[in-house]
Specification:
Strand order of the largest sheet: 1-7-8-9-2-3-15-14-13
Shape: globular
Number of helices: 10
CATH superfamily of the largest domain: HemS/ChuS/ChuX like domains
CATH class of the largest domain: Alpha Beta
Mean pLDDT: 95
Strand content: 25-35%
Structural class: alpha+beta
CATH topology of the largest domain: Heme iron utilization protein-like fold
Radius of gyration: 21 Å
Number of domains: 2
Order of helices and strands: HHHEHEEEEEEEEHHHHEHEEEEEEEEH
Number of strands: 18
Oligomer: single chain
Length: 354
């Protein structure tokens, strides 16, 4: 078995080296797709050279990340990339359901440790030079979260973290397993729509929305279709462009949520440098970058949820499979009513969409 394992890793490593010769500027994520493997499997082929496999002791690791100083946090799904600079302070890991949190003005994360399985420290070459990183992968080898050092990071602390968390297993083969397919929505006719709408009208906290979906066994986009115009209105799929451009022009501070099966990353603040280029719609600010692959956005909804602080309004965008890929809110905190300038922006979007 060990011989077969070694042969497989050597074969993949060789295939990757040949691919890089012919496609020197292709990112590892796209190379993995082209080779029919996961990004984690491809990264593992560089263990012993530019990568180190780390023990998956994620709770203590999360508490130690602050030692790196100012870094760049990257979370993405297939359609949207969210990058935020800051310090990993105030880790909270003793939470139910294998959750962890960072709640800071800059690094603001909701972590689902059930989706964290593999970890590497890796040096990645790109046009900006050598990028040192810590990278987390799901059980199927899909990237969950990446942490890149910046010019303001502590390289010695990074080396110490590698020494502390280095795994005894430094093989170049990553064993991955497929994740179960997401469950399909029930037919609309099987949903208690009247009961669902009534329960929605009785919400008092935005965090109660997920339990509401589970209770009525309704998918998120399906819920927005069935909610009625009081709570959800479908708008053009590119409405995120209007929201980001208007938030820039009106100087409205916003919140941008982007996640995958293992994490949700949040930016809070104003946006300034909004750029459309090569099919991507981008925010390119010093501390926050957002990249939206426009062709992959399939639908968008304005969503209104009642809370104890009044109505909370968002724009939610979805991919072709009906999975939410980014959520946009006005800057807010519990106990404080939603900003009027954000409500006006969304009202203008709704008017323009009719």
């Amino acid at each position: 078995m060990e011989g077969a394992t070694g042969t497989r890793s050597i074969g993949l490593k060789k295939a990757y080296e040949e691919f890089k010769k012919e496609n020197p500027t292709t990112r590892i994520r796209d190379a993995a797709a082209a080779l029919g493997v996961s990004e984690g499997e491809l990264l593992a082929t560089s263990v012993g050279e530019t990568a180190v496999r780390l023990r998956p002791d994620f709770k203590p690791l999360l508490h130690d990340l602050h030692s790196l100083g100012r870094v760049m946090a990257l979370t993405r799904n297939e359609e949207v990339v969210h990058e935020r600079k800051g310090v990993y302070e105030n880790a909270q890991t003793d939470l139910p359901h294998k959750m962890a949190l960072f709640v800071n003005p800059d690094i603001d994360l909701r972590i689902f440790l059930n989706g964290w399985h593999h970890a590497f420290a890796a040096e990645v070459e790109n046009p900006r030079g050598t990028m040192r990183s810590i990278q987390i992968f799901d059980i199927d080898g899909t990237a969950v979260h990446k942490i890149y050092l910046t010019d303001e990071s502590d390289v010695n602390a990074y080396k110490s973290l590698i020494d502390e968390y280095r795994s005894e297993d430094q093989s170049q083969l990553l064993e991955v397993r497929s994740k179960p397919e997401p469950s399909k929505d029930l037919p609309d006719s099987d949903i208690d729509v009247e009961g669902f709408r009534k329960a929605w009208s009785e919400l008092t906290d935005t965090h109660d929305f997920f339990p509401l979906l589970r209770k009525f066994k309704v998918g998120r986009r399906q819920a927005l279709r069935l909610a009625g115009e009081e709570f959800a209105i479908e708008v053009p799929e590119d409405s995120f462009k209007y929201v980001l451009n208007e938030a820039r022009d009106r100087k409205v501070p916003i919140m941008v949520f982007v996640g995958n099966g293992g994490i949700i990353q949040i930016h809070t603040g104003k946006v300034a440098n909004v750029i459309e280029a090569r099919g991507w719609f981008n925010v390119m600010d010093p501390d926050f970058n957002l990249h939206i692959d426009q062709e992959r956005v399939d639908s968008a909804f304005i969503v209104r949820k009642p809370t104890e602080d009044g109505t909370v309004t968002s724009l939610e965008i979805f991919n072709r499979e009906g999975r939410d890929i980014a959520l946009f809110f006005g800057k807010r905190k519990p106990g404080i009513p939603e900003r009027e300038d954000w409500r006006e922006l969304i009202a203008d979007l709704e008017a323009a969409s009719r």
